[in-house]
Structure prediction request, 128 residues.
Amino acid sequence: MNFILLIAATAFGGLGLFIIIDYVRFNRVAIKTKGKVVRYDEYQSKGSNGHKKTMYRPYFEFIHLGKVFEVKSTTSFSHKVIPVGSAADVLFVPGQEDKARLAEGHSYTLGVLFLFLSLPAFYLGFKG
Prediction:
């Protein structure tokens, strides 16, 4: 039994499961509305190969019950996926408007990827 692989598999599997559960819970109660991207934060991120890459984090706004909310996205992109000033689908939970998410880039795909990556580590961890 290889404990290091089992720890890594548990971490990857747990993170993947968390992402999927968060996605399902959020979408079950979220309301979809229209908003717009108002600006982007631009920053440098170092990739796994050591090269720096420019990343873009959008700020978007939407109106709920006559009040305008501006939110910094929790998701960054390698390019400006929605041009500034353009309409965007926004998902939010009433009462938690500050935690709204852009529908673009909001999926469970990363969670599934982490779960699949954990499977070989579990296999090798128990086998070894």
About this structure: The beta strands are 31-46, 52-64, 67-72, 87-92, 101-102. The longest strand covers residues 31-46. Residues 45 and 74 are 15 Å apart (CA to CA). Helices lie at 3-29, 109-127.
